[in-house]
Amino acid sequence: MIDGRRFVGELALIARAAENGRTELLAPRPGYFRAAPQEGALFAPGMVLGELEVLGARFRLIVPAGAQGAVVALPEGRRIARRAVQHGERLVTLDPAAVVGASASAAEQRGAAGAGLAFRAPMSGRYYAKPGPDAEPFVKVGDVIETGRTIALLEVMKTFNRVQYGGASVPERAKIVAIVPKDGDDVNGGDPILALEPA
Amino acid sequence: MSPGPIFRRLFVANRGEVAVRIARACDALGITPVFGVSEADLEAPYLAGRERVVLGPGRAALSYLDMTRVVQAAKQSRCSALHPGWGFLSENPTFAALCEQHGITFVGPPARAMALMGRKTPAKDAMRSAGLTLIPGSDGVLRDSDAALEAAERTGYPVLFKAESGGGGRGMRIARSGDEVKSAFDDARAEATAAFGDPRVYMEKLLEGGRHVEIQLMADRYGDVIHVGERDCTVQRNHQKLIEESPSPVLSESERARTLAAAVHATRSIGYVGAGTMEFLMDEQGTLRFMEMNTRLQVEHPVSEMRSGLDLMREMILVAAGHRLSVEQEQVTLRGHAIECRINAEDPNEGFRPSPGAITRFVPPTGEGVRVDTHVASGYVVPPFYDSLIAKLIVHGRDRNEAIERAIGALESFVVEGVKTTIPMHLAVLRSSEFRDSRYDTRRIPGWPTSR
Predict the structure, then answer these.
(1) Residue-wise over B241-266: b if at least 16 C-beta within 10 A, else e?
(2) A-B contacts (CB, under 8 Å)
(3) How far apart are CA B135 and CA B440, in angstroms?
C-alpha cells in the first residue's frame, strides 16, 4: 500500500517492441499520467519520462533498459495535464532511428567543429566507432554519408544505441572531414562527432 | 426502477461469475458498473461492451489483490462505490478502510466489524455474549504449550489447534492425546506464522462427523437486521463446498428458531451492515455451534434467493447507499427447497485436479425452477490463475425430492466440452441413497468414493 502525499517513488515503464525497431512504453499500473513529454524529446534508459499519480502519491516513470529514442507518436486525443491511464496503456512510442544530432544552432556548430558543419552527439554516453572490437569502423574520414547512415554506437546506461546521420541542421549528403572523438571516449550530448562539408 | 438516491457508477473489484452477478444487480438498479480486470480476463465474454480498467497482469497479486491498483482504478473511473464480491479483497478491513479514505463507498460492513470478525477470539466473545452456542475450547489465545496442554486436558481429546488469524484450513493441527499436544501446538504456530504472519493459536474441541450449517443475514445502517434462513453446506471436499441446500434436511425446528433469533441479535449487537453469513458446526446432538462469520455475500447466496424471492445483491448495494432494508422479517417467506451445485473445471476422477483450458461448447440447462449463474460461454478459455468455478446450477422445487430430481435433470442436459468438470460427481451424489437420506457429514462426499 502506498502512503504519503509528498512521497515520490519510481516505477519502471513497461516496454513493448513495435515495428521498425520502435519501442512502445506502457503504463505499469492504473493512475493519472502527468508531465507527459513533448513530441521529439529524446529518452534513454534510466531517464524520467513523466509521472504517474497513484492515490495521491507521485511516481517518476523510468525508461526501462533497451528502450531509447525520440518521442514520435503520442497517443490520440487532447493533451491534458492529468490523464487517467490503465495498466498496459501506451503512453509514448520511442523511435531510435529518430535519434539524430543537430539540435544545436548553425552558429554553434561552426564554432565547435572548426569552420564547417558538424554532426553532434544526440545524447551523452561512451562513443564507439566500430560495431565490435575486431570490426571495421562505421565511417572513415573522406566517406560521403547520407541521412540514415549509422555513424557510431553510443553506450548509454549499459545499452548500445545506434547513432544515425541526419537532422535538420545538416545536409542530406555530406563528406566527413574529421572524426572528433576517439573510440571509447565519453561524449556529452551536443558534442561534435563529425566535422563535415557538403557533398 | 430506482428506489431513490443511489450510486451512479460502481466499481466491480472482482472477476468471473461474481462480477457478472454484481453487474446484473447494477443493470437492474440503473447503475453503471465499471470492471477492474486483469490482462488474463480482457477477452472474457462478460466484458463485451462494458466499461473496464485494466489493473495489471494475470497474477492476482499484481491485479485483483493489489489494493492500491484497485482503489486508484475505481477513483479514476469516477466510481462512488466499490463491490468486492467474494474472495480476493472482500474480507480485508484495510482495503475497506482504504476505499472509504478515498471517498469510495465499500459495499460491505464497516471496517471495524470486519476486523472484529476476522480475529477469532474477539469474534467468539462477541457471539457468546449475544447468546450463541460455541465449540468448547481454550479461553482465547494460548500462551505456550503448557497452557495448550492444560486447556486440552480440561476440554477432552481430540482437540484442534487453530490460527487466530487463520482461514482456508491452514494453521490447523489435531492432537488426539496429551503426548501429541506439544508438537501439534508448535506446528500450528509455525504454519500460522508462515501463512498469516500471526503466530497466535487457540484451541477447540475437535467435533468429528459434524455438519456445516450457515445462516444468511442482512442488515441496514439503522439497526434493522433480517435473516433469510439457513443453508446446509455439508457436502465438501477439503473445506471447499460442493453442494449447498436450504432448508437443512436434518435441523430440528426448535434449534433452527433458537439459532436464527440469536444470530439476528448478535448481528445487531456488533453494529453490522450489509450481507453476512454465520457459519455453524452442527454436532451429533443436533446443536448448532458458532464457528465464524463471513463478512460478505457468499458464493451460495442464490440458494437463499430462490427460497425467499429476494435479490440479496441488490439489497446489499441499496443498504450501502444508505437505504433501509426493503423488507421486514415478517415479510420474508421461505418457500420450498433449493439446491446449488458448484460446477468447477476440475476432474473429480483424478482427485479434483484443476482442468484449465478452452471450453469448446457450453450449453447450460433451462426449465422450471432452474437458474444458472455463470460468466462462461462457448469458446471461453479458463485461465490458470484463478479458482476453478465456472458455473453454479441452482434449482428450486416444492420439496427436497423435487429439487433433487430437477437438479439431476438439469445436470444431465448441461453441456460442457473441452474441460473436465464436477458434473459427473454431482450426478453421482444426487442419485446416491446417502444423500437422499441425509446420511453423511463433512468428512466424506456421499455417493462419491474417496478412492477414485
Answers:
(1) bbbbbbbbeebeeebbebbbebbbeb
(2) 46
(3) 21
Measure the CA–CA gap between A190 and A192, rounded to whole angstroms. Answer: 6
- CA nearest to B101 within chain A: A55
Task: Answer yes or no: are the C-beta atoms of A116 and A196 closer than 8 Å.
Answer: yes
Cell numbers 433469510 correspond to: B228
Chain B residues touching residue A84 (CB < 8 angstroms): 76-77
Contact yes or no for B69/B77 (Cβ under 8 A): no
Residues B81 and B74: their CA atoms lie apart, in Å, by 8
**Structure confidence at residue B3 (pLDDT):** 59
A84 CA: distance to closest CA in chain B (Å): 6
Nearest Cα of chain B lies from the Cα of A31 at a distance, in angstroms, of 6
| Residue A108: predicted pLDDT | 41
Residue B98 touches chain A, beta carbons under 8 Å: yes
**Å from A69 to nearest chain B CA?**
26
Query: Which residue, B299, B301, B298, B279, is CA-closest to B289?
Result: B279
At A170, which amino acid appears? V
- For B324-334, write each residue's pLDDT tens digit: 999 999 999 99
Q: For the segment B165-202, what is each residue's pLDDT rounded down to a tens digit?
A: 876 667 899 999 999 999 999 999 998 888 788 899 99
> What does DSSP assign to residue B252?
-
Q: Is B366 on the interface with A (CB under 8 A)?
A: no
Contacts of residues B108-111 at CB distance under 8 Å and 24 or more positions apart, as own/partner, are: B108/B84, B108/B274, B108/B275, B108/B295, B108/B296, B108/B316, B108/B320, B109/B272, B109/B273, B109/B274, B109/B276, B109/B295, B110/B271, B110/B273
Please state, for a pLDDT cut of 70, what percent of chain B lies above it: 98
Q: CB–CB of B76 and A88 under 8 A? A: no
Residue B134 C-alpha cell reads as: 460455541
- In sequence order, what are the residues at sequence separation of 6 or more whose Cβ sits closer than 8 angstroms to the Cβ of residue A103? A120, A122, A167, A169, A190
C-alpha cell at B56: 495489471
Q: Indicate the pLDDT class of residue A113, thresholds 50, 70 and 90.
A: very low
CB within 8 Å: B39 and A84: no
Return the higher-pLDDT residue of B172 and B404. B404
Reported as a single tens digit per residue, the pLDDT across A120-175 is: 888 778 898 988 888 889 999 989 998 888 889 888 776 777 888 887 778 888 88
Does A29 reach chain B within 8 Å, measured CB to CB?
yes
Nearest CA to A192 among A177, A176, A180, A175? A180
Q: Is B65 on the interface with A (CB under 8 A)?
A: no
Q: Are B13 and B36 in contact (CB under 8 A)?
A: yes
The strand pairing partners of A169, in sequence order, are none
Cell of B357: 483450458
Total residues found in chain B within this entry: 452
Percent of chain B with pLDDT over 90: 85
Give the pLDDT of residue A116: 62
- pLDDT value for B64: 96
**Within a 10 A sphere around the Cβ of B412, how many other Cβ atoms?**
10
Give the containing element (helix H, strand E) for B204. Answer: strand B201-205
d(CA B288, CA B213): 8
Cell 453454479 locates to B392
